[in-house]
Specification:
The protein has helices at about 1-15, 35-50, 55-60, 65-75. By secondary structure, it is mainly α. It has one domain (about 1-75): Non-ribosomal Peptide Synthetase Peptidyl Carrier Protein, Chain A (Orthogonal Bundle), CATH 1.10.1200. α1 (about 1-15) packs across α2 (about 35-50) and α1 crosses α4.
Length: about 80
């Protein structure tokens, strides 16, 4: 569920096909997201899942799989 929702949100935000996203996909290197995209993604995820990301937690988790694991640990 979290994985599918994250893929949907990323695809919508970045204008890409969700099929191009896998757990190993790196948000910046593979999807071309910039720092503003990451901030927007974090804000969207915080709202969607009712959690809070700390700045250092975002920098440490930049693959889809790492973000999913983090969100699941907070739910």
């Amino acid at each position: 569920m979290v994985y599918d929702k994250l893929c949907e949100l990323l695809a919508d935000q970045l204008g890409i096909d969700p099929a191009d996203i896998s757990p190993k996909t790196h948000i910046i290197h593979d999807l071309g997201a910039d720092s503003l995209d990451v901030v927007e993604m974090v804000t969207t995820l915080e709202d969607e899942f009712n959690i809070v990301f700390l700045d250092e937690e975002v920098r440490e988790r930049l693959t889809v799989g790492e973000i999913v694991a983090y969100i699941e640990s907070k739910l």
